[in-house]
């Protein structure tokens, strides 16, 4: 089988990057950036998750079917979050007569 | 007597013992296993996704109470646990690597290391939980009524934060307990030489599961622990 095998050195590199990003998210949280705190924290978390999915979970070297399945999970998650939050987060934006 | 052409060896001669009869070859078998595992993980994404959704809805509605509640979580233990879990993902990845390159002993060692790190994570989580029980921060009839602990916020809203904290971290911890059980079985079979570069699907699929659980924590940690950090 023509399997892609990552080197231990590469795995340690990914591990180091994840640890640095963890330190970064803890440090950034101590600054008062207002609403940007959440955005930065989530951006770092998404970056870490992407590293794990691509390299620890081998999606970078996997078949297109696997990549499509991963994207499908994000698509359904986005539907779940966006459709529901577009309701909850917009309540009160528009005045409703009689309410 | 019908002879088998030399370039087409008989079906049985070419059989790897791990190849199941309904697959053409090991490669197809591995692709099927990986695909199936990922389909399961899609359902897991939506399983945890519902809880993240509940968190986002209540977080925006009761944001001051959530910041106050988050303030009482132990960031230091949270950071240590994040490091421990990322470390366990490294040892898991190394376990898969060891199987890929036919290193039987290394496979067992890395799987056992992953179990140990998972156990450390759960131990620290247990210490945190016991602190919360002691401080009456567990949702229910004994939830704190001491307004001085959370000045100026509605305690019922803080209780919602702690409900989400316990459900989300509890479900995450449950996944780890299951993962540790699977890893123990894997380590046993790895020791008996069941896995090799030709066949290591169970190690690979368990790795996918373990890394997924790591990813859940990567999101839980900032959302639960770091909200109140700049108010310290």
Cα-atom radius of gyration of chain A: 19 Å
Can you write the helix and strand succession of chain B as a string? HHHHHH
Determine the most extensive contact between two protein chains: A-B, 49 and 53 residues
User: In this structure, how is the largest beta sheet of chain A organized?
Assistant: none
Helix/strand order of chain A, N-terminal first: HHH
Helix content of chain A: 55-70%
What is the CA–CA distance across the termini of chain B?
85 Å
**Beta-strand residue fraction of chain A:** under 5%
Q: Compute the separation of the termini of chain A in Å.
A: 67 Å
Proportion of residues in β-strands of chain B: under 5%
Task: Quickly count the helices of chain A.
Answer: 3
Q: Low-confidence spans of chain B: pLDDT under 50, at least 5 residues? A: none
Helix content of chain B: over 70%
Sequence-ordered SSE layout with sheet pairings:
The complex is a heterodimer of chains A (99) and B (232).
Chain A (H helix, E strand, L loop, with lengths): L7 H22 L6 H21 L7 H25 L11
Helix pairs in contact in A: 1-2
Chain B lengths: L25 H36 L1 H9 L3 H26 L3 H31 L20 H37 L9 H25 L7
Description:
The complex is a heterodimer of chains A (99) and B (232). Chain A is built from three helices and no strands. By secondary structure, chain A is mostly helical. In chain A, helix 1 (8-29) packs antiparallel against helix 2 (36-56). The N and C termini of chain A lie far apart (67 Å). The mean pLDDT of chain A is 92. With 232 residues, chain B is mainly alpha-helical. Chain B is 71% helix and 0% strand. In chain B, helix 1 packs parallel to helix 6 (201-225) and helix 3 runs antiparallel to helix 4. Chain B starts with 25 loop residues before the first helix and ends in a 7-residue tail after the last helix. Chains A and B meet through helix 1, helix 2 and helix 3 of A and helix 1, helix 3 and helix 6 of B.
